[in-house]
Write a structure and sequence with these properties.
Mean pLDDT: 90
Radius of gyration: 30 Å
Oligomer: single chain
Strand content: 25-35%
CATH class of the largest domain: Alpha Beta
Number of helices: 17
Shape: globular
Number of domains: 5
CATH topology of the largest domain: Rossmann fold
Length: 910
């Protein structure tokens, strides 16, 4: 068997040695083997003074972490002071009469004293406070036996009929669950890190409803999951969840269901994220593909609310107009949120939508942007939001989704040639007609949402007592960003990284389940609405996104030049005026530097994104692009026509597009007057909201009513007292009036302090089209009251108790474990003690490869040795640290006794 010990900073996995166990009362007697002798533990103290590790005598592969505190339960009327007399223990907490938490000077003393106390007759329970394996071990489940869990599976060609050849092909498999090379274990891209979660649970006891086109209930990979679940067709009114169509559209619900809970280990097909969860098929479309009425949608939200824990909604309103729940649907969502699961609420997962290329924005979708919903973006195999995935400040998290460039996800399809996959396959692979992948695969945010629903099922299986709101926060805190080149990625005032493209990032199933186990439910959320009390109505100036030119004798026509923005980053306050340089069409890399300058660029020859990348590489802070004389047929016209700079979603600098006449005039003026300074300005009303209440924020909203005639012309932003700005609405193609009466929501203020001045800004970004006024505005805060005199988002009494000072920022990490003080506050851990597992964990990637994992952070490096002979280990591999878990895949030693060494490198990696 494998055993772990620590010696001199080097982690070794070695053969276990016989020793005597220590017995505690928990309250039944339980025996544990400590990791090393007391002298060995003292060495451990030199690195982690407050903990030691052990394993139960009945489970030698489990690692428990015991702290320097002791839980003590006494018989009624027993005086705790008498029990503690003469012992090196102090009373830290009284949980209730007879139940206490004691403080020892170190972990070994706590261990020894708890063992002794366990022998006393008046003691009902005595043990060191511990982290069980579920709370402390990364763990790693065996890979399922399903053929296409592996990626890049080659299918041979064959002749299925005389002269009918089915060509061989490569099936991309379930890369979204584990994106590693099947032979070497090398990482190939992003995934949702599901195997560490499977080491703890597989979604047992959780039912997920798929509100869609129905589920093929007798599909080989789904029939066990759907057995006995509350299926219902809201179109026919019958308890039948089967699809009403046999085409690609009719397969939509079956494809979503497979991603959530396809059965694992049946030797073919795939595994869902939560393969032990149950699936309820809720049909919300009729046989013509038309959705049911809003009355029936309202009924759907509240249906089977004692059984269903999670609802997956891979549907969205289409286009760029603002659409959301009506009164009937709103009542259903409210019921699901407040009354289901005995008041804990249903987890509502919504696809963000797939109309990014039309300028659509999730905040205009009243379902996915609702604070009761988890709005899910879709990402490519490399972590960037897909070309279709809609951005928005209301997004919570993201998941892999596939797209037209990379192909769709491998998942279940209608059986045979029905559904999306109409191809017949060779013998032994006939069942592949029951699945879809590649160009026929499941794409876009419809595919991302079920992956998040599956992770939510793992989270609730780990901790069924979580509220739906707790699940949201577990998911956002455990998520992470893979696309660090996203120019929109920002860190809010309490240190959480968030973007309008993917919210808080890619879901991490392993980290989410680990966090769920240790999570204590948040206090009840409160809502505060603060109406704007200034003079109303307020006019919105026309053409507020503009170029302003300053200098001597500036011609009137150049004093300001109206333009329109791109879809990428944009200044949310007027910029400082700086010099500008004409760089032509920016088709080649520049020889001159543009540091501290703007770039003037002519449209043509290459893409807007390429032009902006060239200017940014030379140091430009922004770009002004002016139109060419004559444009190609079918494209935006040339001349003074204003064109949206499409494809600029990830451009590294802001851009404004202006007409040709203005661009040429500016070019000529700057050439003759090189001291001219230029800036991009935003002109429009800013409405302040004063908040005196001290809350830790969660979702924050703005309700806005206007009579503006072209809604899509407006950019609407909200800035918190801490300086975090959310884009509530961006420039888009919606030509209808508005916002007539709409509430926008943002997740970007999670855990920031509420008190201070909030600022709502509105800018008309298109000259001469829409006009109108702000008629009414309100700020809506959701959060938890705390005492926060230093405005850092943390509860002051907790800071003083845990840290002894208010001087720390919420984003700091004084114990160096990679988790911020904020995260430790929310999780209930000690911000001054690194409570992560001290020792590495071992699992098997496959039959030939071993996976080692241990806590890590970005910037750390480790040397990993392995071999069958402890005295002759292989040359070391250098492994860079990764947060929260560093891992490496190594060949299993040929010897029956395998040894692995993980050694942290102090100083620069070599």
């Amino acid at each position: 068997m494998i055993h772990r010990s620590l010696w001199g900073g080097v982690f070794l996995l070695i053969a276990a040695q016989a020793q005597s166990p220590t017995t505690f009362r928990l309250p039944l007697p339980a025996a544990f083997f400590p990791e090393g002798s007391p002298s060995g533990i003292s060495r451990l103290h030199a690195i982690k003074p407050a903990v030691l590790t052990a394993h139960p005598d009945t489970a030698p592969d489990e690692t428990w972490i015991f702290t320097d505190r002791v839980a003590l339960k006494l018989e009624a009327s027993t005086d705790v002071a008498n029990v503690l007399d003469g012992r090196p223990l102090s009373l830290s907490r009284t949980i209730e009469p007879g139940l206490y938490v004691l403080q020892a000077p170190d972990a070994w003393t706590a261990w020894r004293e708890a063992e002794d106390l366990s022998q006393r007759p008046e003691v009902l329970a005595a043990y060191p406070v511990y982290h069980s394996p579920k709370a402390s071990s990364d763990g790693y489940a065996r890979a399922p036996l399903d053929t296409f869990f592996r990626i890049n599976v080659d299918i041979p060609s064959c002749e299925i009929a005389p002269g009918v050849i089915v060509p061989g092909q490569r099936v991309n498999g379930q890369w979204y669950l584990e994106n590693r090379d099947s032979l070497t274990g090398a990482e190939l891209g992003v995934d949702i890190n599901v195997r560490p979660a499977w080491a703890l649970n597989r979604g047992e006891g959780i039912t997920v409803a798929v509100a869609d086109t129905g589920i093929e209930l007798d599909h080989d990979d789904l029939q066990d999951a759907v057995a006995g679940a509350p299926h219902f067709n809201f179109s026919s009114g019958l308890p039948n969840g089967s699809p009403t169509r046999n085409d690609s559209g009719g397969a939509h619900g079956t494809s979503a269901a497979g991603l959530i809970a396809a059965v694992a280990n049946n030797g073919q097909g795939m595994s869902g994220v939560a393969p032990a969860a149950h699936l309820a098929a809720w049909v919300i479309y009729d046989s013509s593909g038309r959705s049911v009425s809003t009355e029936r949608i309202g009924d759907m939200f509240r249906y089977a609310n004692t059984v269903v824990s999670i609802q997956n909604h891979s549907w969205t309103p289409t286009g760029t107009r603002q659409r959301g729940p009506d009164a009937l649907e709103e009542a259903g969502m409210a019921s699901a949120w407040t009354q289901s699961r005995g008041g804990l609420g249903t987890v509502l997962v919504f696809a963000a939508g797939n109309d990014r290329e039309l300028g659509a924005y999730v905040n205009d979708n009243g379902y996915a942007s609702d604070p009761r919903a988890i709005g899910v973006a879709g990402v490519t195999p490399f972590g960037r939001a897909t070309a279709a995935s809609e951005p928005g400040s209301s997004l919570l998290v993201a998941a892999p989704s596939g797209d037209d460039e990379f192909g769709g996800l491998f998942t279940t399809d209608l059986s045979g040639t029905d559904g999306a996959n109409w191809i017949s396959f060779c013998p032994t692979f006939e069942y592949l007609s029951d699945y879809r992948w590649g160009s026929l695969g499941f794409k876009h945010t419809s595919a991302a949402a079920p992956l998040v629903s599956g992770v939510a099922a793992l989270v609730l299986s780990a901790n069924p007592g979580l509220t739906a709101r707790d699940v949201q926060q577990v998911l956002l805190l455990s998520a992470g960003h893979a696309d660090l080149a996203d120019p929109d990625l920002r860190t809010n005032a309490v240190g959480l990284a968030v973007s309008h493209n993917v919210g808080f990032g890619l879901v991490n199933a392993g980290e989410a389940v680990r966090l769920a186990i240790s999570w204590s439910n948040r206090p009840p959320v409160l809502r505060l609405t603060r109406a704007f009390t200034g003079v109303i109505p307020i006019a919105i100036p026309d053409g507020g996104y503009r170029v302003e030119v300053t200098g001597e004798s500036i011609p009137r026509e150049l004093a300001f030049i109206s333009g329109i923005p791109g879809f990428g980053i944009q200044p949310d306050h007027s910029m400082i005026a700086i010099p500008i340089t004409d760089i032509g069409r920016a088709t080649n890399a520049l020889s001159q530097r543009l540091d501290g300058r703007g770039a003037l660029i002519e449209r043509g020859n290459n893409s807007y994104n390429a032009k902006l990348a060239t200017a940014a590489a030379a140091g430009a802070r922004f770009a002004i692009v002016y139109n060419l004389e004559t444009a190609a047929p079918g494209s935006c016209p040339g001349g003074d026509q204003l064109c949206v700079p499409v494809g600029t979603d990830y451009s590294p600098i802001p851009v404004i597009f202006v007409g040709r006449t203005s661009g040429l005039a500016l070019r000529d003026w700057v050439a003759a007057n090189p001291d001219t300074r230029v800036r991009i300005a935003l002109i429009g009303p800013s409405l302040p909201f004063s908040v005196t209440e001290s809350w830790q924020c969660e979702r924050v909203g703005v309700r806005l009513r206007t009579d503006f005639t072209v809604r899509g012309d407006l950019r609407i932003t909200l800035t918190s007292p801490s300086g975090t700005t959310s884009i509530m609405q961006r420039y888009n193609g919606d030509t209808s009036p508005g916002p007539l009466d709409w509430t926008y929501w943002s997740t970007h203020y999670y855990y920031e302090p509420s008190s201070g001045s909030w600022t709502l800004s509105v800018t008309d970004e298109a000259l001469g089209e829409g006009t109108g006024q702000i008629l009414e505005a309100s700020l809506i805060l959701e959060g938890v009251p705390i005492l926060d005199m230093d405005h850092d988002g943390l509860d002051d009494p907790w800071e003083l108790t845990q840290l002894g000072t208010l001087e720390y920022a919420a984003s700091e990490d004084p114990d160096g474990d990679g988790y911020s003080i904020l995260r430790e506050f929310l999780e209930g851990s000690n911000p001054l003690v690194d409570e992560r597992p001290t020792l590495p964990d071992i699992g098997f990637f496959n039959d030939q490869l071993v996976r080692l994992s241990w806590p890590g952070r970005v910037g750390e490096h480790f040397r990993v040795h392995s071999g069958g002979d402890l005295g002759n280990l292989t040359a070391p591999a250098l492994v860079p640290g990764r947060f929260p878990v560093t891992s490496t895949v190594r060949l299993e030693p040929a010897s029956s006794r395998g040894f692995f060494s993980v050694q942290p490198i102090l100083g620069p990696a070599q």
